[in-house]
């Protein structure tokens, strides 16, 4: 974000000019909001950014008689006009929208004669983390205590309180599992499958990934052992769409990819349960039956009544998702010397979800970080290098859903990775075990936070730990968030 975009012309502004000035003010507001979480009020960087925020406010008040920011549904309005954010500024807009909703703030009004010091005090109060059931009332009380009179708030209207994105995402996740079960049952009875429903589900998955990728990736820690194939297929579809998005596929391509991943194991309907769930090693005959499922899956998709509505890539994925990058694996290719791009993507996601799931026939269940390390050992031979590297970058060194031991003695659950390269080892984590070893419903902390006195990080990851060793159920956190 350049200084040029933050210093608009200060002449009397028309509607579009007011839009630009209002958005620039929110960008500056966001910067100060974030810096206040890291540094004390006398910090030089904070002082500099506060001055820039105040200058932007002066430019804005020259162009607009009133300064009102209102939250309405999924938009921010400035003086009754909806602000239109660019793609570059969209993450800032989403952050501010979410933070205002958490604090139940529906309207922010700034009086033109507010001082720089009063504005800083107001932003400081607004930026404090809130855990009580009455965040709005707490903020108003603190603003009064801080003698902030020229920054006023109104509470978010009840009609504007939307269901949490986490609840919507979790509902979509379980609806997808139910739909896949219906698909399996209808296929067994040779009944028509509702492909339009499947496509709408994948489109919704894409929309949720754009808004809250971290939480959806966390939902893939949910493993229903009684319905492994269904749960696994939904996880793979979700991971594949997220990975395809990182690889630069278009929205239409991502929907086709998600659809192909959704049906990649459809052939297992024909595989006997005693083979799928056998505790011991498969016999040669049993393995031959197991390895038929790619052929059977492709055949079932070709035989669908709505076959013309199905992307051809779904047939490729059903047939090829167990073929390695060096073309070994199964089924063996006799003529073809390459595999489909979507098949390569699904193979990565399929392998990752499979080895991080506890199964009766596997002695070890890998943690998410261990799984990535194992996969990197087979880069080039089993997995496509570009696709696997992109997947590892997406998941992070400590993927969402990992348990980590901190230098404070606390145990944290990774809930969001930091995309800045210098902070790859510093994700956001929820404290679930305190320094005394007691399970707690702790706060979510940002491991980039610095103690202003010591100028050192407040917390640092010591190592990843296995949830089974501590009797902790990772999926519980994501399920609670969705309630």
TrEMBL record:
PROSITE patterns: HD, HD_GYP. It comes from the Bacteria. Gene3D superfamilies: Hypothetical protein af1432. Residues 207-407 form the HD-GYP domain. Coiled coil: none annotated. Residues 229-355 form the HD domain. Signal peptide: none annotated. PANTHER family: CYCLIC DI-GMP PHOSPHODIESTERASE PA4108, CYCLIC DI-GMP PHOSPHODIESTERASE PA4108-RELATED. This is Response regulator CheY-like. It comes from Candidatus Saccharicenans subterraneus.
């Amino acid at each position: 974000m350049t200084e040029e975009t933050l210093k608009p012309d200060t002449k009397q502004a028309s509607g579009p000019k007011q839009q630009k000035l209002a958005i620039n003010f929110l960008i500056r507001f966001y910067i100060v909001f974030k810096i206040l979480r890291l540094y004390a009020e006398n910090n030089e960087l904070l002082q500099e950014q506060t001055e820039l925020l105040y200058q932007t406010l002066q430019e804005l008040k020259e162009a607009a008689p009133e300064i009102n920011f209102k939250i309405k549904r999924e938009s921010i309005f400035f003086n009754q006009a909806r602000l239109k954010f660019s793609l570059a500024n969209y993450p800032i807009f989403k952050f501010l929208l979410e933070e205002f909703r958490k604090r139940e703030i529906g309207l922010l009004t700034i009086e033109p004669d507010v001082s720089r010091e009063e504005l800083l005090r107001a932003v400081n109060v607004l930026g404090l983390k809130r855990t009580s059931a009455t965040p709005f009332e707490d903020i108003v009380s603190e603003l009064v205590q801080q003698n902030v009179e020229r920054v006023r708030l109104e509470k978010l209207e009840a009609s504007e309180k939307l269901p949490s994105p986490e609840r919507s995402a979790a509902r979509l996740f379980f609806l997808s599992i139910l739909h896949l079960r219906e698909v399996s049952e209808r296929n067994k009875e040779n009944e028509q499958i509702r492909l339009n429903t499947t496509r709408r589900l994948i489109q919704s998955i894409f929309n949720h990934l754009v808004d809250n990728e971290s939480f959806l990736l966390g939902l893939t820690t949910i493993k229903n052992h009684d319905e492994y194939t269904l749960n696994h297929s939904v996880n793979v579809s979700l991971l594949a769409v997220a990975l395809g998005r990182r690889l630069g596929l278009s929205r239409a391509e991502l929907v086709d990819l998600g659809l192909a991943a959704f049906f990649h194991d459809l052939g297992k309907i024909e595989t006997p349960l005693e083979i799928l769930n056998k505790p011991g090693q498969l016999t040669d005959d049993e393995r031959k039956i197991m390895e038929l499922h790619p052929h059977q899956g492709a055949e079932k998709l070709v035989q669908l009544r709505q076959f013309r509505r199905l992307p051809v890539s779904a047939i490729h994925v059903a047939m090829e998702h167990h073929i390695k990058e060096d073309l070994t694996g199964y089924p063996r290719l006799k003529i073809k010397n390459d595999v489909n791009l979507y098949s390569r993507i699904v193979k990565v996601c399929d392998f990752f979800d499979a080895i991080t799931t506890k199964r009766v026939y596997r002695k070890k269940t890998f943690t998410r970080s261990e799984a990535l390390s194992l996969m990197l050992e087979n880069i080039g031979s089993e997995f496509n290098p570009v696709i696997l590297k992109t997947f590892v970058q997406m998941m992070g060194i400590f993927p969402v859903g990992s348990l980590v031991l901190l230098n404070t003695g606390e145990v944290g659950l990774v809930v969001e990775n930091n995309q800045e390269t210098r902070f790859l080892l510093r994700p956001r984590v929820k404290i679930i075990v305190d320094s005394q070893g007691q399970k707690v419903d702790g706060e979510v902390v940002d491991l980039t936070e610095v103690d202003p006195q010591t100028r050192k990080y407040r917390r640092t990851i010591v190592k990843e730990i296995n949830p089974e060793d501590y009797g902790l159920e990772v999926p519980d956190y994501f399920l609670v968030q969705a309630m």
